[in-house]
Amino acid sequence: MERGEIPATVAPPDAATVREFQRVVSEYNVRIYRFILKRVGHPDEAQDLTQQTFLEAYRQLGRFRGESTMWTWLCAIANNVARNHRSRAPQHRYHFVSDEVLQFHPADAADPEEAHARRQQVKRLRAALDELSDDARAVFVLVALDGVSYEDAARILDVPVGTVRSRLSRARNALRERLDGTFPNAV
Description:
Layout: H1 15-40, H2 43-59, H3 70-88, H4 112-131, H5 134-145, H6 150-157, H7 161-179
Helix pairs in contact: 1-2, 1-3, 2-3, 3-6, 4-7, 5-7, 6-7
């Protein structure tokens, strides 16, 4: 059987499996939405892709063997859904969340000058991230921004842990060069 191919004899899930999957959706919906939003930067698209992620997870439910946590498995699916979306719609490359989405989350800046300086830092970081390769950006976002362990990032991206470490190192070095002291000790 080819990778990704679903066997023709998959039995429909029983009521207990459906209830358990509904619990999984309730538990992880917000986290998966945020995970995807960081990758696509558009709230409406992130919502659609979150639903697509859970639909795909439901389709593949019989293939979940428990070798990773449910969160890691869902992140792998969400990462593939977001990557496929970006590759089909290149105008939707990685972007940070828009200011409109953050309107209810004010910055901690004490004054307008500090707020302006932070916005400028975010713009520089956004531009530097956009210059990274897709592979380097994916690892950096997972490990540095999402706080995913190297091992889980390797499972999500379907690469060896050593590849995660080397891509992260290259991404950090590239960001340090591009940001040139903008974020001291942050990358």
